[in-house]
């Protein structure tokens, strides 16, 4: 990159700014304060049809200050790094707090819960990537895909590499920092023409550039995924088993986590309110998080409240064993924080896995969903209905691609009807899962 990024220097600078913000808040009358600061730098390039389409070098920074005056809360933020701006942000946060209503749940997490061990979680692996090299990799990726017979057009390939430093501090004396990197490469291709045109993509992402799939692998995979969607038709309407591909199963995990998050619970906007201990999944299924996993895409030793993270089990042998709570949502619910301010980190499933071909044989006749559209979920009732595309399975084998249909059910019933988890585990994100076979969903097609 054209601009040097010294992560150690940036970390020191952010820690110093956060410490000064805390001192200013105390000086100006705040009873407590917490500060989040970050800086990141990245390169992103895009190519299309063998030509450079975009080159972006980015550098962003910001600081957010939250103050508490009694049980009144105010927050303000800025992207200006000057001393004058820092003071203005603190003053604005205090002014806001003085005009807000009291909230009995407001305040920092308890001091005894702050993280005291901040191990190196192996998250920082900078990539010395020049623009010309980045473009060359993206071009190789797209070319590999376009060379496959049947590919008629391209929406391009893109590569990005980002390095970031984040700091969180509060007036308990806690100060935590993280350095991290994220690199990714993707390609989106088109096959066919007119009404029969189809598109699909593939990608690779990792904290270490050496762990990325090769450009050729990504391009060829994108081409194969696109070509297999040609000649799609609408499936027949009825009640069938549905096999959710790993990318789609990850969405179901997200639906579960959103439903057990403290914010949804205290607002009573979740179908899982007051359901601790209830059986949701088959007994063989467990799900939890490993926030301190080395090299994990979402690893952190502390949450957004400064609370020490820990392994949590949310689903234990089918039962809802724990909610996902921040300090604030825990107070609203009369419970204890689970160290989940900022969400779940490195979600992992513990369940016996089945070879994908065996799962298809088990389902017999039904549909494999590889793409979904829309946001058709009612979080209060769990009712679920989304547009989809994928493949028709007949006698345990892929018969033909399908599109323009809807899959519908209810999350509680879908979770209970989980028949198996595939061994095709997608490890590219923070949620690792294979395909999910769910019995008895409604398909609306022809």
Automatic annotation (TrEMBL):
Keyword terms of this UniProt record: Hydrolase, Metalloprotease, Protease
UniProt record similarity statement: Belongs to the peptidase U62 family.
Any GO MF annotation of the entry: metallopeptidase activity
Pfam families: PmbA_TldD_1st, PmbA_TldD_2nd, PmbA_TldD_3rd
InterPro entries reported for this sequence: Metalloprtase-TldD/E_C, Metalloprtase-TldD/E_cen_dom, Metalloprtase-TldD/E_N, PmbA, TldD/PmbA_N, TldD/PmbA_sf
NCBIfam families: PRK11040.1
Ranges of residues in domain Metalloprotease TldD/E C-terminal: 237-445
Annotated SUPFAM superfamilies: Putative modulator of DNA gyrase, PmbA/TldD
Stated name of the protein: Metalloprotease PmbA
Domain of life: Bacteria
The Metalloprotease TldD/E central domain, residue ranges: 125-230
């Amino acid at each position: 990159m054209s601009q040097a990024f010294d992560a150690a220097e940036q970390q020191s600078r952010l820690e110093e700014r956060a410490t000064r913000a805390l001192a200013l808040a105390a000086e100006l009358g705040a009873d407590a304060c917490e500060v989040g600061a970050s800086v990141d730098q990245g390169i992103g390039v895009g190519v299309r049809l063998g030509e450079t389409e975009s080159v972006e070098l980015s550098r962003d920074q910001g600081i957010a200050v939250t103050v508490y005056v009694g049980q009144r809360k105010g927050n303000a933020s800025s992207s200006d790094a000057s001393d004058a701006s820092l003071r203005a942000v603190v003053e604005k946060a205090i002014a806001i707090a003085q005009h807000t209503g009291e909230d009995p749940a407001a305040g920092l997490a308890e001091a005894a819960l702050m993280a005291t061990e901040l191990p190196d979680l192996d998250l920082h692996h900078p990539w010395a990537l020049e623009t010309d090299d980045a473009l060359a990799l993206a071009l190789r990726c797209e070319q590999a895909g376009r060379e496959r017979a049947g590919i008629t057009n391209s929406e391009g390939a893109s590569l990005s590499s980002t390095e970031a430093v984040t700091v969180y501090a509060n007036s308990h004396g806690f100060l935590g920092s993280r350095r991290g990197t994220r690199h990714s490469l993707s390609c989106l291709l088109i096959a066919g023409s007119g009404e029969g045109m189809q598109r699909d993509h593939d990608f690779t992402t990792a904290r270490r550039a050496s762990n990325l799939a090769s450009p050729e692998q990504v391009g060829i995979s994108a081409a194969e995924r696109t070509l297999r969607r040609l000649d799609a038709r609408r499936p027949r309407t009825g009640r069938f088993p549905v096999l959710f591909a790993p990318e789609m199963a990850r969405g179901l995990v997200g639906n579960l986590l959103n439903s057990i998050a403290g914010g949804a619970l205290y607002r009573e906007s979740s179908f899982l309110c007051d359901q601790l201990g209830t059986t949701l999944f088959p007994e063989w299924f467990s799900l939890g998080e490993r926030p301190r996993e080395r090299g994990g895409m979402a690893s952190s030793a502390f949450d957004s409240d400064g609370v020490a993270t820990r392994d949590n089990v949310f689903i234990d042998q089918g039962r809802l064993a724990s909610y996902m709570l921040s300090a604030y949502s825990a107070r609203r619910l009369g419970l204890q924080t689970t160290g989940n301010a900022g969400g779940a980190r490195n979600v992992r499933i513990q369940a016996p896995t089945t070879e994908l071909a065996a799962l298809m044989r088990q389902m017999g006749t039904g549909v494999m969903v590889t793409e979904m559209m829309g946001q058709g979920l009612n979080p209060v009732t769990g009712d679920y209905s989304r547009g989809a595309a994928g493949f028709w399975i007949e006698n345990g084998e892929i018969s033909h691609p399908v599109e323009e249909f809807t899959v519908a059910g209810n999350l509680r019933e879908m979770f209970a009807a989980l028949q198996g988890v595939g061994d095709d585990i997608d490890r590219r994100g923070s949620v690792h899962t294979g395909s999910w076979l769910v019995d008895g969903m409604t398909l609306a097609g022809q």
